[in-house]
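FAQ: What does the model actually see?

It sees only this:
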Amino acid sequence: MKQRVVTGIFIAIFLLGYLFSMFTFVFPLLNALLAALSAYEIQKISGVKNKPLMGLSIASAALIPVLFGRQRYVFAPVVSRALDYIARHLPAFAVLLVLLSLILMLAKYSVTRFEHMAVSLFGGVAVASSYGCTVLLTNPGKFSEGLPVQVFFLMFSFSCAWVTDVFALFTGRAFGKHKLSPNISPKKTVEGAIGGIICAAVVNVIVLVIFKAIYPQKVIAPYTLTVLMSVVLSAAGMCGDLSASVIKRNYGAKDFSNLLPGHGGIMDRFDSCLFIWPCMFGILNLIPAI
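And it is asked to produce this:
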């Protein structure tokens, strides 16, 4: 229990730094680190033993969040030119990534199955792109720009993930009768899911009230949209959590790693967010068209 508390304090400190690094080049680098660690964990749990293939996936995962942030953050000139070159020829680089993955599978065919290559591409591209969406949240559609608004939306995403999860647990213990997905996560209940979604919406509205009081000149988000987004994103976060549970169940693991003692790995902490961030980015950019 003590170890879990100490790790929790470390995570809280990291998240504070993460939030307030949003307008510095550190933010895409932190996301690159998280993406690389997540790609490593998902390959490790699935039994990928092809080190060059794993290295290629981790490199791709680290590159994508930085690539997403190339127009929003100031990097060294040589880095900016390299990122712009990759962006201009992105289809060619995507094809090259797949071809290299296939070649590395053939080079170490004795320890590599096609499944391993697919997992490596998933970790190096799909998971990394979700982290990249946090970089894109620094320009939230038609709302005001500036640190307070971006911090609000990032806090909003964490609330939809973790407040939903915590209150779903407590509500499920108190009122849960109907299993949400007994074959994937037997302890989750429909009542818990509903309670978690409602509580997350309440917390998000309270946070919005506080932000509007502190920054009355900023156009953050209307209350109706906040509630609707909260419901949608909380549900998306639950899908992310269940998807991660399916992966772990497929490979007979309790956690993705023990990098965060008492909390599992990076994927265990951010599995819900990996569904929430792309959904939030899509919603915020579709709002002008609604």
